[in-house]
Structures are given as structure tokens and as C-alpha cells.
Write a structure and sequence with these properties.
- The chain is mainly α and 132 residues long.
- Helices cover 84% and strands 0% of the residues.
- The chain is built from 5 helices and no strands.
- Helix 2 packs across helix 3 and helix 3 runs antiparallel to helix 4.
- The relative contact order is 0.17.
- Keywords: Transferase.
Length: 132
């Protein structure tokens, strides 16, 4: 339980750094920093879900997509959220492994929505953890 609480706190801190940058005026430096903050926020976000599933539901999962599918099965994520987090996973993987300027611009356009999605889900998991 303590691990989940600490992981959730770390995720919320990471998400605050992402929130700080999403409203900054566009520049390639802001874009690149936003992408980097998105990547590390995503990494801690999916691990919060992984820990929640293991601790609260007794479900083991090893990858972001498997965790998101399991989270949908147990009702943590709606169908719409599941579709979005699976798309977000693809964008996160693409952003890490691509130098394609056009792809990076497209991902950057999604960062605000991704931040809002991760923020809402994390808050819901934190609340659910308190009540469980």
C-alpha cells in the first residue's frame, strides 16, 4: 500500500511538470521539453496502474498495454479512456524512437489531452485507493 501511495505522489509531481509546460508559447524548445515531460509522466503513470492492479486487484501485468487492458476489465478505465491510453502508448513509444519532425509535431499536439487524461485517471486511482 505504501508503494502505491509513493508511486502515486511521484506520478502527480511528474504530471505537474507536464501541466506547467502545456500552456507555454510554442517553440521547438518548448515542444521538445513537453515531449520529454510527457515521456517520463507516461512512464510513472502506467506504473501507478500496474501497482494498483497488483496491490488492489491481485493482477500482474508487465507492459503498459497489458496493464491498460486489465484496468479496463476491472473498471478502472472506461472504454474510451482505454482507447486513448493505448493510442498514448503508441505515441510515447514513437516519441522515444523517432527523429521524424512531423511525427513529433503530431505528438506535441496531443500532449495537453494526454496530460488531462493521465491526471484524471491518477486522481481517480488515488481516491479509489483511499476507499478500498
Amino acid at each position: 500500500m505504501e508503494k502505491l501511495r509513493l508511486r502515486s505522489e511521484t506520478a502527480m509531481k511528474a504530471l505537474r511538470t507536464l501541466e506547467e509546460i502545456v500552456d507555454e508559447p510554442y517553440s521547438t524548445i518548448v515542444r521538445d521539453a513537453s515531449i520529454k515531460r510527457f515521456e517520463y509522466s507516461f512512464d510513472i503513470f502506467w506504473k501507478v496502474i500496474k501497482d494498483y492492479l497488483r496491490i488492489k486487484e491481485g493482477i500482474e501485468c508487465a507492459s503498459p498495454k497489458s496493464c491498460f487492458r486489465e484496468a479496463f476489465k476491472v473498471g478502472i478505465l472506461s472504454e474510451e479512456e482505454t482507447v486513448k491510453v493505448l493510442e498514448m502508448t503508441d505515441d510515447r513509444n514513437l516519441s522515444t524512437h523517432t527523429y521524424d519532425e512531423e511525427a513529433i509535431e503530431e505528438i506535441y499536439q496531443q500532449v495537453r489531452d494526454y496530460w488531462e487524461l493521465m491526471d484524471n485517471i491518477c486522481k481517480r486511482i488515488i481516491e479509489s485507493s483511499k476507499n478500498h
